[in-house]
Amino acid sequence: MDNTKELKKGHLHPMTTMINEINSIFSDMGFEFADGPEMDSEHYNFDALNFEENHPARAMQDTFWVKDKEKTLMRTHTSNAQIRYMENNKPPIRIIVPGKVFRNEATDATHEAQFHQFEGLMIDETTTLGTLKGVLNTFFEKFFGKEVKVRFRPSYFPFVEPGVEVDVSCFKCEGSGCSICKNTGWIEVLGAGMVHPNVLKAGGIDPEKYQGFAFGVGIERLGMLKYGIDDIRLFFNGDLRFVNQF
Ligand SMILES: [Zn+2]
Fold it and tell me: How far is the CA of 149 from the centre of ligand 1 (A)?
């Protein structure tokens, strides 16, 4: 009689798997892992990143302020790690910062009050938007496992100049049009740009000598695209029927 019971093995949550994958792809390109605090000061989250006081850009990111602690908030992006890293390290800089971020907004199929982002920052004497395009192209091809094209559209973010919205060619229909790319052949994936001179200065880096790019991307959004998931809340509700599909 066989009375041995098979023990079921657990496995990593898809979020953890994706973060490991992202770290590994960027590590191959010479980027180092960095981190910043989830609860931080207004200085690192906004001021030092060139968000002027009363500038409408601050209102673009609905913020959870910490009660009874002056000028303290839950970080709205992983960009808070940029200045901290620059303060302690001199160029050349190549870092990747994955982590949790918080927005005070209503949740629905595409919005969560807590989600994950990763930030990329590369600074030296010669880095250009062309370098950024090459780095992102390599990342997306490895992450989606398909050949893709990357395109930039002009945009505005306070911490970069110029700023760009980055689109990736649809890896599902390869440009012929489908529901993922809303029949355009392109998918909007992230915001990026050349680091604003004021941000370099705030980090103690000479903008006359050094330049570089920064980008930030929602990890759940990438996962939803890669695996065809239509509700971001599935990443957080702990439903094993979802988790066990990975
Ligand atoms: Zn498509």
Answer: 13
Report how far residue 241's alpha carbon sits from residue 55's, in angstroms, rounded to the nearest whole number.
44
pTM over 0.85: yes
pLDDT of residue 87: 96
**3-state SS assignment for residue 145:** coil
> Three-state DSSP class for 166?
strand
- CA–centroid distance, 231 to ligand 1, in Å, is 18
Q: Is residue 73 part of a domain?
A: yes
Q: How many domains does the chain have?
A: 1
Q: Is residue 9 part of a domain?
A: no
Domain containing 126 — which CATH number?
A: 3.30.930.10
The boundaries of the domain holding residue 196 are: 14-243
pLDDT in tens, 12-36: 888 999 999 999 999 999 999 999 9
Strands (E), 22-131: 32-33, 39-41, 72-74, 93-102, 114-124
Answer whether residue 161 shows pLDDT above 60.
yes
Task: Please give the distance, rounded to the nearest whole angstrom, from the Cα atom of residue 169 to the centre of ligand 1.
Answer: 8
| 29 inside domain | yes
